[in-house]
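[User] Once you have settled down, look closely at the record that follows, and write a paragraph about the fold.
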Amino acid sequence: MSMWLLLRRWMLTQFGQLSGRNLLLSSVIYAAISWLLLRLAGEQALTHSLTDFIYYLFVTASTVGYGDMSPTTDLGKWAVALFVIPGGLGLFAIGVSRIASLLIHYWKGGLMGKRSLKVNKHILVLGWNEQRTLSLINMLLHEEQGRRDIVLCVRPEMENPLPGKIEFVRVVSFTDHAGMARAGVADADCIIIDNPEDDVTLSASLYCANQNPTAHLLAYFNDEALSDLLKQHCPNAECIPSVSVEMLAKAAVDPGSSELHHELLSTNKGMTQYSVNFPSDKAETTIAPLFSLFKKQHDAILIAIDSGDGVELNPPLNKAVTADAKLFYIADERVDSFHWHKLGEHDV
């Protein structure tokens, strides 16, 4: 092995042990000594301008060597050969490796869920049920389509299952304050909690309700008793019980019911159930003109209403519809803009 390679390896080893602060200090000292040596050697062209001098150091240290600037005196050539090139190579190599290491660490931290997120008004999904969670997230991605960020927060040691599509955070538990803060629990617009263990779902729900009482909280339970317990402590929480048994019974009595329910819940094909709030600036009306409006103008079917006292399915045509009432409808796709102004027209 040549002396040059041995010297280069030794310098890289020494520079590699430098901290970030010492590396910056070493670079400043290196630049100052290089300028002094070249100045004493009579290299006026390399030292008369700070821009030219810094440019020359970077070109030399990076081994690019354009050749547009080079020492002309014998002393200058010795100074460059013995100090400027060896010192610059070491500092440049370790500097690039430090930057690359930071970038890789940042990317890996996001993939492993160790990075703090800067999100707001997002959908926070707590829990990992493998394929069921993936299906949930894919439906949310289809529904939202860039409206709200989706953050998956899990406990198992795993990587982001959908990098580039969702944000990802891994925590020790769903009641860990520091970990949940990284997931932006206090700033979430909607929190969905779905875990294999109902007790984990219950504790996570209570914690999230305390940290973010204004968020739309959804919790899935296998045991309906725990669902009722959560409603006692968090009346605003929306609990989704397991309906697998009910679905089996319904399909046995009315064949095809399971396919109908699957069609209504799927966001990837066929008709799907959506909701919209009746505008607060519109006068009170009834279901009858709205039913016609939905069908004629948007090919949608109005199926239910919630005026604040619970969902009423298949409401009568004379049911009053007041400001901010939530209207549930079935359509092929979500209607982005309803033609409310056509309520008073004779063809409606």
User: Anything to note?
Assistant: The first helix runs from residue 3 to 16.
